[in-house]
Known about the structure:
- The structure holds two protein chains of two kinds.
- By secondary structure, chain A is an alpha+beta fold.
- Chain A contains twelve helices and 13 strands.
- Chain A has a five-stranded antiparallel beta sheet with strand order 4-5-10-6-7. Chain A has a three-stranded parallel beta sheet with strand order 1-3-2, with helices on one face.
- In chain A, a hairpin with a 2-residue loop joins strand 8 and strand 9.
- In chain A, helix 10 packs antiparallel against helix 11.
- By secondary structure, chain B is α+β, with helices and mostly antiparallel strands.
- Chain B is 28% helix and 25% strand.
- In chain B, strands 3-7-1-14-11-12-13 form a seven-stranded mixed beta sheet, with helices on both faces.
- In chain B, strand 19 and strand 20 form a beta hairpin.
- The chains are: A alpha+beta, B alpha+beta.
- Chains A and B meet through helix 12 of A and helix 4 and helix 19 of B.
- The site of flavin-adenine dinucleotide (FAD) has 28 residues of chain A, from strand 2, helix 8, helix 9 and strand 10.
- Flavin-adenine dinucleotide binds next to strand 2, helix 8, helix 9 and strand 10 of chain A.
- Chain B: Pfam families: Ald_Xan_dh_C (PF01315), MoCoBD_1 (PF02738), MoCoBD_2 (PF20256).
- Chain B: It comes from Asanoa siamensis.
- Chain B: Keywords: Molybdenum, Oxidoreductase.
- Chain B: This is Carbon-monoxide dehydrogenase large subunit.
Amino acid sequence: MQVPAPFTYERATSVEHAIELLGQLGPEARVVAGGHSLIPMMKLRLARPDALVDINDLGAELAQIRVDGDALVIGALARHADVLASAVVGEHFPIFHDAERVIADPVVRNFGTVGGSLCQADPAEDLAAVFAALDAVAVLRGAAGVREVRVRELHVGPYETVLAPDELMLELRVPIRPGGGSAYEKVERRVGDYPVAAAGAAVWLDGDTVRDVGIGLTAVGAEHFTAPAAEEALRGQPATEESFQAAARLAAEHCNPSADQRGPVDYKRHLAAELTTRALRRAAARARGQEA
Amino acid sequence: MTTVEERPHTGFGRTLRKEDVRLVRGKGNYVDDVRLPGMLHGALLRSPYAHAKINSIDTSAAEALPGVKAVVTGETLKGLGLAWMPTLSYDVQAVLATDKVRYQGQEVAFVIAEDHYTARDAVELIEVDYEPLPVVFDAKRALEPDAPVIRDDKEDQRDNHIFDWESGDAARTEEVFANAEVVVAEDILYPRVHPAPLETCGSVADMDPVTGKLTLWTTSQAPHAHRTVYALVAGLPEHKIRVIAPDIGGGFGGKVGIYPGYVMSIVGSIVTGRPVKWVEDRAEHLMSTAFARDYHMRGEIAATKDGKILGLRVKVIADHGAFNATAQPTKFPAGFFHVFTGSYDLRAAHCAVTGVYTNKAPGGVAYACSFRITEAVYLVERMVDVLAYELKADPAELRMKNLLKPDQFPYTTQTGWEYDSGDYPKALQLAMEMAGYDELRREQAEKRERGELMGVGIAFFTEAVGAGPRKHMDILGLGMADGAELRIHPTGKAVLRISVKTQGQGHETTFAQIVGNELGLPTADIEVVHGDTDQTPFGLGTYGSRSTPVSGAATALVARKIRDKAKIVASAMLEVSPDDLEWAGNRWHVKGDPEQGKTIQEIALAAHSSLELPEGVEGHLDATTVYNPPNLTYPFGAYICVVDVDKGTGAVKVRRFIAVDDCGVRINPMIVEGQVHGGLADGVGMALMQVMAFDEEGNHLGASFMDYLLPTSLECPSWELGETVTPSPHHPIGAKGVGESATVGSPAAVVNAVLDAIRPYGVRHADMPLTPAAVWAAMQGRPIRTDLAIP
Ligand SMILES: Cc1cc2nc3c(=O)[nH]c(=O)nc-3n(C[C@H](O)[C@H](O)[C@H](O)COP(=O)(O)OP(=O)(O)OC[C@H]3O[C@@H](n4cnc5c(N)ncnc54)[C@H](O)[C@@H]3O)c2cc1C
């Protein structure tokens, strides 16, 4: 059995308490949510926090999924399974259900959290691409107070975020706008595997014209999990196969994939284009109400 | 007398597995469940380098950690003469490295501590000064003249060559090839994979300082062989060693050999005078225990223009890793690979295998491979498809044309195997009917018109299992015959003791059914004892699908001895001559007078009573036997796989899998089907996702289940199984083994299906695993070397 190096353990009773504990325990303390990323890393001794602050008792504060004004709000402690089961999520953004169906396996989904996924900042995380496509905002709270950060600005590099050591992610706010459709496409070597490549798209149509679009890409070295040049190029264009493919080509060009056992660089770049096209196609169809 | 309807389950047929009563309730007892008073915990320090000189090891910080009892290094072992141990292939392997490390994950030091956590913490405190050396990570590179020599510990070793071995008639094969109308060659890799049982390896050693008796609970598929090897290696008297293999969470050949960790738990118990547990973790297991395959093959097939296959030859470079530790019968360094002529009637065949050392873990014969028949079947079944590709022939028709005919059995192959029985065309015909073969081909043609990719792949295999006849087969000089002991208690309940060991195959059920079938006893009344050398007769254990062919035969024969003895007792009870008695499934009765008879239970009680027995007949009802198989058994099967390939991504979906197996008489069809299901999943895994690749520094790129992928139910279709039954003529109950059939036969079917799907791209061959990236690369005409880090 792999076992972690020694550490101490605290259980937070409220958001304030968690932040207080993080402040007291110092920069080598870590929040543990679902533990499905952190604990394997600790067992492999790739992560060696001195202390863990367990936030699993904060469900009432942090695990809600609700519509608040013109935003869908997903608590940081919402489990993958909660998102997958949520009708309100599916109604507004089917991209979540597309993605959650192919994230990990039921055991991981039952415990792994949305906040943990984003804070882990794994360069192949699926939800990072989803939230980036939807241009969501993360709400963070630390000793210094509450602040909001666009998910597109949350990650500063692989396994690195803008969160301060004593900051907690509280929730994610996804703006709801009319006329939209969204979809997620992923290639994996096997169910439950991190993506070889994946693309998410959200499209807002005015008739047959793309009013606005968000593209999220993961596992292909896309900066901030997005493809701004492709989005820019597609805005105002007719929602056709040709313009989707042109945008997808742009998205692929701006990726910077690295070769590993999931595939060589050219394949991943090819997938970035192929999957972006497919996601745009399906998102647009959904925006037209053509597919459930 | 009870009526037949009311009788509990007896003999062959579907019945729930006896072992599941405990296993499905979480009440199994695995090595890691063993907890002894005063038990200490061991952990190994393993090398981060694939090839490096060890300059020094400093254990002082580890020793100073509170709770640490001892730290053992190779130097300590050297003093005891235990730094090296023999392998099952007459090589030696380091227990703990002294001079150099030769693969990533090799054992370097052993910590013994009060608890597992402390042992692991202490491992990190050991400081080793390594001097990295150039790495041989590619079998093909191993033989180049400037390749670094890995085994400089061996006096006469000047290169990385281990052995050359051949089979078949080279000259005759050359002649057939020279005169053939069509000759096709292909380079085919069977990459390094791992059996990856869910339970990793481990042991608990308890050396009693007073009696000098060692008890070892260990993950062993072959407890008796292990005991003898420990006696030979460590010089411990064999009667003072008790090896217990409790419940095992999967073996697949990976638990046949002896690993340094087992030896270190014994050393640890001797050093500390307390029991020592060592259980490795997942990464250790995947990096250091018996891998499988790693065969780099060049196949050539010769045929007439109209598709009559004439000859087959193959050259193999076999990567054996840093120590030659393959487990197979001594005479066969390439295992049974020379059964590579498969199921076809050939004029000539020849194979030449060269074994090489590389900076990778030792092993090679594991993962339900039937001693390398996986490699053999994959080669021939790929080559037949390669030929079909060249001839533009239908692969089913081509096979049908060349399969051995029923009247050719017993059939001696070009490499000397005597196939016992079979009706091959019937099995293939059945598989094609179940699949709706012609309809599938029509659908495929339509899809191709529309630009969609669908493929149908066929594999026909012949297995050779049940090793084996003692005059041909031994491991380290131990003949491959197995014992069985059967005792009927006075009340008619029975205990059977066998040398083989279940790792999930259901021996406790199947073997009880064999006894029940011979004696008419209910399955529930027969206790099967196995996995404990103090409780069971000698034998070589469970691997190579040998349990039913060898120990199953021993069990049937020992039951027949009981039946014969029961006849004499019955004759005394009924006061008639034994010659006047007739067996009726569960009782002896007087010929022509069925009312006058005695059940085996009644006889058992009488055998233990004061009944006067005939001269020379001992009381009680028990018997022993040793079975030396006259030949192997030869199961076979026809598999058809249907896949859909996503043209834009290269992703493969296995849509259907039809498997017709013939394993002779089926003792428990449910268990047979379970074995087939598991093996088919193995095949999907190997064909589509599993591989242990290495980078140029010899780093193992598959040391976790995130990197070494096992298929799940979502990659597996609902298996469609069929059967034909051709009994083995030389096995007492006509059974053949089935434990490895599906693992042997299925990879080729899946690969053939994928390549059939992407045929429009002009692809004749691509290596496993056919991941989306590998399929896409093949479609671009740039196949990937799947066993190396992807550039
Ligand atoms: C077998 C397996 C397969 C997987 N497959 C996929 C996959 O296909 N796609 C995919 O995207 N992911 C996959 N994952 C990852 C999975 O989604 C994890 O659950 C997720 O990455 C982390 O969530 P968690 O709640 O478990 O986080 P934890 O492991 O608890 O934490 C992860 C990191 O986030 C920090 N953190 C957690 N919550 C907060 C918070 N509220 N505020 C601040 N910091 C926080 C922690 O301190 C830690 O650094 C897989 C995981 C496993 C084990």
